[in-house]
C-alpha cells in the first residue's frame, strides 16, 4: 500500500498536516475514501465494537453515517513522536428525529514503513 505524504518521522508541521488531511477525509462522509487512509489489516475499536480490515471499516462507516446525519468532525493534534500521532476529536450529528448528539474522544495512530496507519 502506498502511503500518502506527509510520512514519518513526523515533525510538528507534518503531524498537524496529517491530522488535517484525516479530518478533511472524514468530513466527506465517503466510507471508501476514509478507509484508504488505514492499513488493510487495521483493527478499530468503537465503543464495544471491534472492526477489522478495510471492508469492515467501509461497512461500519456507511452504517454510521446513515444513522448520524449532518456529521461534522473536528480533529486536533494532541501529541506525536516519530511514527505515532495522538489525536483528540469531537463530532456532532443528529438522528432522523432531529435529536443532536456530540461525542468526544481520542485516537492513537501508529504507522509502519510498509503498511500505513493503524488505529490503535
Describe the fold and architecture.
InterPro entries: DUF1348 (IPR009783), NTF2-like_dom_sf (IPR032710). The chain has helices at 12-26, 31-35, 54-67, and strands at 43-46, 49-52, 69-81, 84-94, 100-112, 116-119. By secondary structure, the protein is an alpha+beta fold. The protein has a single domain (12-119), classed as Nuclear Transport Factor 2, Chain: A. It has a 4-stranded antiparallel beta sheet. It has a two-stranded antiparallel sheet with strand order 1-2. The longest helix is centred in the first third of the chain and has 15 residues, at 12-26. It starts with 11 loop residues before the first helix and ends with a strand. The model has no long low-confidence stretch (mean pLDDT 91).
Characteristic key phrases:
3 helices; EC 1.8.1.9; two-stranded antiparallel ribbon; oxidoreductase; 120 residues; 6 strands; alpha+beta; four-stranded antiparallel sheet
Task: Compile the SSE list and pairings.
Elements: H1 12-26, H2 31-35, E1 43-46, E2 49-52, H3 54-67, E3 69-81, E4 84-94, E5 100-112, E6 116-119
Antiparallel strand pairs: 1-2, 3-4, 4-5, 5-6
GO molecular function, one term: thioredoxin-disulfide reductase (NADPH) activity
Protein name: Thioredoxin reductase protein
InterPro entries: DUF1348 (IPR009783), NTF2-like_dom_sf (IPR032710)
Amino acid at each position: 500500500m502506498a502511503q500518502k505524504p506527509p510520512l514519518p518521522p513526523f515533525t510538528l508541521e507534518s503531524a498537524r498536516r496529517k491530522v488535517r488531511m484525516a479530518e478533511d477525509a472524514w468530513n466527506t462522509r465517503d466510507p471508501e475514501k476514509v478507509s484508504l487512509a488505514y492499513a488493510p489489516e487495521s483493527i478499530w475499536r468503537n465503543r464495544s465494537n471491534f472492526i477489522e480490515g478495510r471492508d469492515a471499516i467501509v461497512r461500519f462507516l456507511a452504517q454510521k453515517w446513515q444513522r448520524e446525519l449532518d456529521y461534522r468532525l473536528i480533529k486536533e493534534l494532541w501529541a506525536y513522536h516519530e511514527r505515532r500521532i495522538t489525536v483528540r476529536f469531537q463530532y456532532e450529528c443528529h438522528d432522523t428525529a432531529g435529536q443532536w448528539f456530540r461525542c468526544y474522544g481520542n485516537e492513537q495512530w501508529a504507522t509502519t514503513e510498509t503498511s500505513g496507519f493503524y488505529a490503535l
